[in-house]
Design a protein that fits this description.
Layout: E1 5-9, H1 16-26, E2 30-32, E3 36-37, E4 52-53, H2 56-64, E5 68-74, E6 77-82, H3 83-91, E7 95-99, H4 102-113, H5 120-124, E8 125-131, H6 135-145, H7 150-164, E9 172-175, H8 179-196
Parallel strand pairs: 1-7, 1-8, 2-7, 3-4, 8-9
Antiparallel strand pairs: 3-6, 5-6
Helix pairs in contact: 6-7
Amino acid sequence: MKPLFIVISAPSGAGKTTLCDMLLQSYPEICYSVSCTTREPRLHEEDGIDYYFHPKESFLRMIRENRFLEYAKVHGNYYGTLKEPVYDVLKHRQSMLLDIDVAGAQQVRDYISELPDDDPLKQGFIDIFILPPSLEELRARLEGRSTDSSAIIEKRLKNAEEEMQRASEYRYQLINDDLTLAFNKICDIINYNAETL
């Protein structure tokens, strides 16, 4: 398979994490991108597996050194994707899967647009937006989790509406109304691009 740089975004509750897990199980040649963060590790989180945990000073230095593909400050902590691990994976003829929000995906697209045509990131880049069948269904899924308060659910739904308005910025959009069908569509996209890009 040709090395791909796959960016997937979706509103919370659209099934992105489940679909990404299924992809990683089905394609051993796809690696999952581990983000950097300045927040403290939570219980059972491991450095290099869940996140790369960095002190704020170190993270800010890497920003100045232009080492990130994308980064953002969220709730007082920084999160970002380093360029080097992505290039390393592609260099070893494997693919990289990046699970980020719409703002991060835009930063990645902006970065890639400036690259020469023969750059491996540009050659293998595809982005996919996963949509829920409707906002009503998304609400039902979020409420069904029983993990968030009604205020947090309302906030997630408001964010989802804003994110869904940006779905057309992605090369591919698919609706996750049936997990198996949605997964098969993602596999079709990956297989097609691995053969034709």
